[in-house]
Design goal:
The structure holds 3 protein chains of 3 kinds. Chain A is an all-alpha fold. Chain A has a single domain (23-330), classed as ABC transporter involved in vitamin B12 uptake, BtuC, CATH 1.10.3470. Chain A is built from 13 helices and 4 strands. In chain A, strand 3 and strand 4 form a beta hairpin. Chain C is built from 12 helices and 10 strands. Chain C has 2 domains: 50-174 and 322-347, Rossmann fold, CATH 3.40.50; 176-319, Rossmann fold. Classes of the chains: A mainly alpha, B mainly alpha, C alpha/beta.
């Protein structure tokens, strides 16, 4: 629907086509490695253990959210409510732990439940309301932000109580839990998508809704599950972000320290996904997140002005889009 | 976004028997005019709740003033959306245009006409870039998002290069006098907005170009077979939208006396258009309904302000109104497609 | 014909407009005149005592900024757009303004931008419907537009914390530039102490934590950066920027900046308290707490609570004393309306780890 102009065929055949396809499929690996090498020479202290950990932490927070986002995209659902879920979950975490004195497991449990509830709400509007996910989640995000605003009173909640950061953000072999959680999410995502029936259903639903419906795929349930997974990973990210900063990541209506719609979308496109669902591999997405993180990290190390960083980001998105479309036209 | 997720699933659930056709007609009528009925109800509600403050010409003027420049953009945005193009770059294009204008007019002190002309050229370039990307097969939704990020970057770059504190103050006369120029006692933007909607209505409903826009938005493949040049229409629509957005950005900056990288009010265009029942997939939507939707939202802002409703509740009311609007619209479409 | 429906719609709309206008002509006599007569001498002979106000504002003990009469020449109506009622800092303003208006016996109207400054022009339109005598706002982005819009309606505008404007002669509150300067002065004090101890011989950097999209932030942290730079004799390469508009989190940007200079020590001033506390905690988590020193601006309950836990590198904050600031705004507004002299709001309290316990007890544990 969004890409009706995008389905012209490219008339490239034979070995050249295969080579091109191979390059496109694996291009993100090549580009990421090249970027890494460029920064090793350009940015001071880029290639140091400490900075590599920095990159991993930064990538992990963006990566977890993108993993869930990817599943939704594969099922053909563009979820624009990520910020809303983040807001609700970060406020829940801070409020329960600091103000209401909940124990740590209960706090985390309720924060994740808040994410699941948000995902179910999205599913309700998309499936039962029969509304395109892009529009539906744009609408539900407004409601979620209102709830978060109501709960937090718009203020940042500082967590002075000990125990959240220390327990949630633990380092194993010098690498924080968020990184391990990210890898875990991608392994689970990989297995789910490639080894299970649900995964096959997700691909099928995203590729052709009607055909899947006719061939007996429980499409509505698949869409609901995909939206819940997307919201759940956003809630998980919110817990980690809150624990790391020891404060809720909401200031007024602005969500700080999180992943915005543009970043997630860029990562998904760079990873070779089609916005129209049904195409893409989750492990490539992980590399795409790394690419974006390395870009941001390297430019920061070089202390580049804001305007330039934004322009570079914009062109990364353009590049991602061109790749995605070329690929769609060749297959 | 699977091919036609909601539309094609439509229908089967909502059944209307033969004997109940009259009831069905009433429901159809209510759904078709839902927004207008809601608007009237809203006016009555606020009039009852706060008669002293609400029922005054001054309140009416405040509501219209609020609809102002962003309302004009919304008119062209509606047409863009009907033609099947989703423009996500409005906030940044408006911001970049106002900054460009401010840099040339305020900082370099060039004449007003030159500054305006330069901004128009820049806006046209943005529209052309978006439509070029679309021509390459990239969905408008993504290409305008990317163009938006680049425009935001250029906006910040202008600020960085001119060493301004996050905005450019825009106080050089006679800009504000122009921005606030009054016709029959109201700022000219208000009548201009109604004129914009009237022009939009004529273009969409009385011209061949309008018919092409609907055709292209509704079924591009069929439109192409009928010899409609989709790229040309997309180009015209996007360039027009970018230019109007740029001008609105300058007007808003002129009224606020400051140009900034993003113009929040303009970024709401998509939400407002969807609220008014313009389909994201293109091909359907009515510009007169957009106008009612716009007035509904402005009245809600002013009304809730008069009643002094707490901010979270205000946010919740706006959020739920959006959810209800799209739900009602979905039901309406399902009924209509039967 | 579908367009017929909209013809009806237009007719009904026109009818509504006519009714509204008709009602307006009826209410026009009751409208309060908004003419500000500054030459009129106040009829009252008695003035409020300063001690009464200090008592009234306990535990903050605000000093009155103007001696105001017990009876005013007109029933003034004040209006204020609060940037975010739910935020403790601005919430204090609101409470103080309401109490002060009641104390002085004038009407006070308030609306709430809920943290979204872009709505302030809209909220002003609504607020103006209350036939105000004077209006104010905390509008760092758009205050000049607000001031001029109020002038259009013949109403004076008194901003708060905005700095100078071409459209209002009155600068009230904490100008962002000065706020940043005060923060830098406190930070210089802290850094100099540390340089006598474990920071001796380390290369010093300043990190400006800001939001490029908020002009007030750019001014505030920019002035902090230049003050600090000058006091400590840093060159431009040692002043680093972490700007939220790049789309990256403050935590990541600070970690990256510190990584780029592994032997350096870092002094930071954020635009608001939370923007500094988050990265501080992330740095501590990464095990580099000893290399960073933070001074924040604002100083309401959350940072005070955090400072009480004695974080190693959180030297302190500049407390803007929101309650007294809000109270003083009402006094300045009334003095302006009555044509009386007033003083500028000056109290700036620097709170450090030594003083925070006492201050916290005064402000938040007194009841």
């Amino acid at each position: 629907m969004l890409g009706r102009l995008a389905h012209g065929e490219l008339a490239i055949t034979g070995r050249r086509r295969e080579r091109l396809l191979f390059l496109m499929d694996n291009g993100i690996y090549v580009v990421t490695v090249l970027l890494f090498i460029v920064f090793v020479f350009l940015a001071p202290y880029f290639f140091t253990p400490r900075n590599l950990v920095n990159i991993l932490i930064s990538a992990s927070l963006a990566g977890i959210v993108t993993a869930g986002y990817t599943v939704a995209i594969l099922a053909g659902q563009i979820d624009t409510s990520t910020q809303g879920v983040l807001a609700v979950a970060t406020v829940t975490t801070a409020l329960l732990f600091e103000e209401l004195g909940f124990s740590l497991p209960m706090t985390v449990l309720f924060a994740l439940l808040a994410g699941i509830a948000a995902g179910l709400f999205n599913g309700l509007i998309v499936v039962n309301g029969k509304i395109v996910a892009f529009v539906a989640t744009l609408a539900t995000q407004g409601v979620m932000l209102a709830i978060a605003l109501f709960l937090s009173g718009g203020q940042t909640i500082t967590i002075a109580r000990e125990g959240l950061q220390e327990a949630v953000f633990i380092r194993v072999f010098g690498i924080p839990s968020s990184v391990w959680i990210m890898f875990f999410c991608y392994i689970v995502g990989y297995v789910l998508l490639t080894q299970t029936k649900l995964g096959a259903h997700i691909y099928a639903t995203g590729a052709d809704y009607r055909a899947s419906l006719l061939s007996g795929v429980p499409v509505d349930r698949v869409i609901r599950i995909a939206l819940v997974i997307s919201a759940l990973t956003a809630a998980l990210t919110a817990v980690l972000v809150t624990a790391r900063a020891k404060q809720s990541a909401m200031f007024g209506l602005a969500i700080a320290g999180s992943v915005d719609f543009v970043t997630a979308l860029t990562a998904v496109l760079l990873g070779g996904f089609s916005l129209f669902g049904g195409v893409g591999r989750i492990e490539r997405n992980l590399v795409a997140v790394m690419f974006l993180t390395i870009l941001g990290n390297g430019l920061q190390l070089m202390n580049v002005p804001t305007g330039i960083i934004l322009i570079v980001r914009g062109f990364a998105l353009v590049l991602a889009v061109i790749l995605s479309v070329l690929r769609a036209r060749m297959t | 976004m699977a091919s036609g997720t909601p539309a094609q699933r439509a229908g089967s659930q909502i059944a209307g028997g033969d004997g109940r056709s009259r009831r069905k007609l009433i429901i159809q009528f209510l759904l078709d005019n839902g927004l207008f009925i809601a608007f009237v109800l809203e006016l009555i509600l606020f009039a009852v709740a706060a008669p002293d403050l609400f029922i005054r010409s001054r309140t009416l003027e405040a509501i219209l003033r609020l609809s102002g420049p962003a309302g004009i953009v919304l008119a062209s945005y509606t047409i863009t959306l009907i033609s099947g193009q989703i423009d996500l770059s409005t906030a940044q294009v408006g911001g970049m245009a106002s900054l460009m204008f401010a840099a040339v007019f305020q900082l370099l002190e060039w004449p007003l006409g030159v500054a305006l002309a330069l901004t128009v050229v820049l806006s046209i370039a943005v529209g052309l870039l978006s439509s070029y990307l679309i021509k390459q097969g990239i969905p408008s939704f993504v290409s305008t998002l990317a163009v938006g990020v680049v425009c935001g970057g250029i906006g910040f770059l202008i600020i960085n290069l001119t060493k301004q504190p996050g905005m450019i103050r825009l106080v050089r006369p006679p800009l504000r006098d122009i921005a606030n120029f009054e016709i029959i006692g109201v700022p000219f933007v208000i009548p201009l907005m109604f004129v914009a909607y009237a022009i939009g209505w004529v273009v969409l409903n009385q011209t061949r170009f309008g018919a092409h826009i609907y055709a292209m938005g509704g079924n591009p493949a069929a439109a192409a077979l009928n010899g409609i040049n989709a790229i040309r229409i997309a180009r015209i629509v996007l360039v027009t939208n970018a230019v109007i957005t740029g001008m609105a950005g300058i007007l808003i900056a002129g009224r606020q006396l400051a140009a900034q990288p993003g113009v929040e009010g303009l970024g709401q265009s998509l939400t407002a258009a969807l609220f008014a029942g313009v389909a994201l997939s293109g091909g359907s939507g009515k510009i007169e309904r957009t106008l009612i939707g716009l007035l509904f939202l402005s009245t809600l802002t002013i009304g809730l302000g008069i009643l002094n409703v707490a901010a979270p509740v205000r946010q919740l009311i706006f959020g739920s109104a959006f959810v209800f609007a799209i739900l009602l619209d979905s039901i309406r479409q399902q009924l209509a497609s039967r | 014909m579908k367009s017929k429906r909209y013809l009806w719609a237009a007719l009904v709309l026109a009818l509504a407009v006519t009714v509204m206008t008709a009602c307006e002509t009826q209410t026009v006599e009751v409208e309060v005149t908004r003419v500000v007569d500054v030459t009129a001498t106040p009829r009252a002979v008695t003035f409020h005592e300063a001690s009464a106000i200090e008592e009234m504002t306990a535990p903050h003990q605000c000093k009155p900024l103007a001696a105001l009469p017990t009876e005013f020449s007109q029933p003034w109506r004040l209006g204020f757009i609060n940037p975010n009622l739910a935020h403790p800092f601005f919430g204090e303003w609101s409470g103080a303004m309401k109490t002060a208006a009641e104390f002085y016996g004038v009407e006070f109207f308030e609306s709430d931008a809920a943290g979204d400054y872009s709505t302030e022009p809209d909220l002003l339109e609504t607020l103006l419907l209350n036939d105000l005598s004077i209006v104010g706002a905390h509008g760092p982005n758009v205050y000049e537009g607000l001031a001029l819009r109020a002038l259009d309606e013949g109403i004076q505008f008194i901003g708060i914390d905005n700095g100078p404007s071409e459209y209002t002669p009155i600068v009230y509150g904490i100008p962002d530039g000065i706020a940043g300067m005060r923060g830098a002065e406190l930070l210089v004090e802290g850094v100099r102490k540390r340089q006598q101890e474990d920071w001796a011989g380390h290369e010093l950097f300043f990190i400006e934590l800001t939001h490029g999209g908020i002009p007030a932030c750019v001014t505030r942290t920019g002035s902090a950066a230049s003050t600090f730079q000058e006091a400590m004799g840093l060159d431009d390469d040692h002043v680093l920027m972490a700007d939220l508009t790049t789309g990256r989190s403050a935590e990541d940007m600070v970690n990256d900046a510190m990584t780029a200079n592994p032997d350096g020590v870092f002094a930071m001033i954020p635009c608001w308290d939370g923007l500094g506390i988050g990265p501080y905690n992330a740095v501590a988590e990464a095990g580099n707490e000893a290399h960073v020193m933070l001074v924040t601006l604002g100083g309401d309950e959350p940072p005070a609570k955090f400072l009480k836990t004695r974080p190693m590198g959180y030297y302190g904050f500049i407390e803007f004393q929101p309650y007294c600031e809000g109270w003083g705004w009402v006094e300045v507004a009334l003095a302006t309306l009555e044509g009386l002299p007033f003083e500028t709001y000056q109290v700036r309290k620097a709170i450090t780890q030594e003083t925070v316990d006492q201050r916290y007890a005064e402000l938040y544990e007194s009841e």
